[in-house]
Amino acid sequence: MVVEIGQRSETVRRANLSAIVRELHARGPLSRSELVARTGLTRSAIRDLVGELVAADLVSEERAAPLGTPGRPSPLVRPNPEDAVVLALEIAVDTLAVALVGLGGTVLELIRIERPRDHLTVDEVAGDLAELVDEVRARRPSAEPLVGAGLAVVGLVRRTDGCVAMAPNLGWIDVPLGERLAGALDMTEPISIANDADLGALAEVRRGAARGADTVIFISGEVGVGGGIVVDGVPLTGVAGYAGEVGHLPVNPAGRPCHCGSVGCWETEIGSFALLRRAGHPEDGGAAAVDLVLAEAAAGDRRALDAMTEVGRWVGFGLAGLVNVLDPRLIVLGGLLGRIHPYLAATVDAELDRLALRAPRRLVRVVPATLGIDAPLLGAAELAFERLLADPASWVGPRDVLRASA
Ligand SMILES: [Zn+2]
User: Fold this and answer.
1) Is residue 257 within 8 Å of residue 243, measured between CB atoms?
2) 268 Cβ contact list (under 8 Å, min separation 6)
3) 40: CA distance to ligand 1 center in Å?
4) In which order are the strands placed within the sheet that holds 59-62?
5) From CA 36, how far away is CA 13, in angstroms rounded?
6) How far apart are CA 83 and CA 59, in angstroms?
7) What is the 3-state secondary structure (H, E, C) of 68-129?
8) What is the distance between the alpha carbons of residues 170 and 136, in angstroms, rounded to a whole number?
9) Quick one: pLDDT at residue 243?
10) What's the 253 CA to ligand 1 centre distance in angstroms?
11) What does the alpha-carbon distance between residue 241 and residue 199 come to, in Å, rounded to a whole number?
12) Ligand 1 centre from 250 Cα, in Å?
C-alpha cells in the first residue's frame, strides 16, 4: 500500500509541476502569490515545487519590489528562456523559416528565406531546413538544452509520423516528411509536425488575438484557405490530424473547381483568387496584385470595395455554419483575410446576424489575427514545447535525486 501512495503522490507532483510551468510559459513572470491563485495549490506546495524547478534551471526566482503593502513581498518566478529551447520550423508556400524559441515563448533567433523554387522534393526542402537550423544554432551558445522541434507545413499532416497526405502547393502526396526531416536534421530529440493553420490557431490562442479564449476558430486565407479549431483550449485534430480544413467546406454547388478536386469549396469564394477576380485583376497575380487591390480599396475604388464586400458575404456565409456547429468564443481571421478585415468586417457581422442561430451568434466576435506571418512558426514552437509542459518532471528528474544533490 505504501508503494501505491508513493505512486499517487508522484503523479500529483508531476501534474502540479506541469500546471506551474504551463502558467509561467503562457504568462511570463508571476509572483508566488499569483501562482497560488492560478493553480489552486498551497503556498508551501508552490514554494517546494518552484524550488525543484529552480534547481533544474527551468525558472529563476527574484525578490519582488515591495508594493507598500504590509508583509513580505512575494518572490517573482520567471521562466529561463535559455535553459529550455525548441526549434520551430516552417514550410510555407513561398518561404522557409527556422526559429529558436525559449521557455516562455521568447524568440531567441529567427531566419525566414524565400523558398528556392527549384527545390521541390522532400529531401531538397529538408536539406534547406537543415542548413537554416545549423545557421540558427551557430548563433547561440552550444549549451542551450534542446527540448525538441516542431514543424508547420502547408498541407494535410498525419500527426503520428509526420507523413504529409496532401500539400497541393508543394506538389506533395503521401510524402514521409517526418522521416526525411529526422534524417536531415540528425537530432535525437523528437520532431513534431502539423498543419500550418492548425499551428497558427494554437499560436493565436497562446500568444495572439485569441489569448485566453477557450473555443476559437482560426481561418487563414491566401490562395488556399486553412483553418485551425481549438475547443476548450485543446486543438481539434480529428482521428489522424486532418481536422480543421475549413477552406474545403463545400459552400457553392454551382461554384468553381477547387485544387483539391472538389467543386465550390469555401476557398474558391474567399481566397486571393476570388478577391482578385472580383476586383478585375488576373487571379494569379500573387501578393503584388493583392497589395494593389488593398491600395485601390483604401483610395475608395468602387470595384475593389465591392470585391471586398462580396468576399465578406461568402466569409459570413461559411462562418454562420461553423458558428452553429462549434459555438466558438472568437473567430480569428489571419493572412489575407486579416489584412482585408477592416473592409469586410461589417458585411461578415451582418451575414452572421442574418444566417447564424441567434444564441451562439450573440456570444462570438470576429477579430483579425495579431501574430502575422509568424503565427504558424510560433505555433510550431508551442507544439515542440508540449512534451516539456505536459511533464516537466521528466526534465527536472525524480525528486529524490534532486534532494540528494541539493
Ligand atoms: Zn477544395
Assistant:
1) no
2) 252, 255, 256, 257, 258, 274
3) 46
4) 30-31, 76-79, 59-62
5) 15
6) 8
7) CCCCCCCCEEEECHHHCEEEEEEECCCEEEEEEEECCCEEEEEEEEECCCCCCCHHHHHHHH
8) 24
9) 93
10) 12
11) 12
12) 7
The DSSP H or E segment spanning 365 is strand 365-368
Q: How many CA atoms lie within 13 A of 227 on its CB side?
A: 22
- pTM, two decimals, is 0.89
Q: What is the pLDDT of residues 373-396, one digit of tens each?
A: 999 999 999 999 999 999 999 887
Q: What whole-number distance in Å separates Cα of residue 355 and Cα of residue 349?
A: 10
- Regions of the chain with pLDDT less than 70: 1-5, 64-72, 398-406
Say if residues 85 and 56 touch (Cβ distance below 8 Å): no
Distance 293 CA to ligand 1 centre (A): 24
Given this model, what pLDDT does residue 212 score?
87
C-alpha to C-alpha distance for 277 and 290, rounded to whole angstroms: 11
Q: 286 alpha carbon to ligand 1 midpoint, in Å?
A: 19
Q: Output the pLDDT for position 1.
A: 45
Residue 171 per-residue DSSP state? T
* The one-letter amino acid at 60: S
- pLDDT given at position 224: 86
Tell me the HSE value of 202 on the side-chain side, using a 13 A CA sphere: 25
The CA 168 to ligand 1 mean position distance, Å, reads 10
**Which residues on adjacent β-strands are paired with residue 333?**
219, 368
Is the CB of residue 36 less than 8 Å from the CB of residue 44?
Answer: no
The pair phi, psi for residue 178, each rounded to 5°, is -55, -50
For residue 243, the CA-to-ligand 1 centroid distance in Å is 14
